[in-house]
Amino acid sequence: MISFTIKIILMAAAVVGVTYLVPGLVVSSFTVAVYVSLALTVVTIFIKPVLKILTLPLTIITFGIFSLILQGILLFVVSLIIPGFEIETALAAIIGGVILGIVSSILFNNDDN
Fold first, then answer.
1. Is residue 11 part of a domain?
2. What is the pLDDT of residues 40-86, one digit of tens each?
3. 3, 31, 55, 103: most buried by Cβ count inside 10 Å?
């Protein structure tokens, strides 16, 4: 079992990695990436379930594609909260959100206890 602190640091490393992979995402430092990973974790835990329920009809109509857009919206919300983390395009937000969502699900949903 990996401690929460190590998971946040790994998520911050993923944030930095995604900024290198996806043009349009900018993070100013590793410290900002740690804040982004903390904020993204909080947003994913508290806001994402409510938005998933509210947007369920739209997600069903679009055969699940809207869930990818929802990931981008959540990443954009985090960029509004954390100074030093910027998103330049909507496509960068969606791609970055999907990649970070996959990393987050691997890190935070594989507890073997």
1. yes
2. 989 988 999 999 999 999 999 999 999 999 999 999 999 999 999 99
3. 103
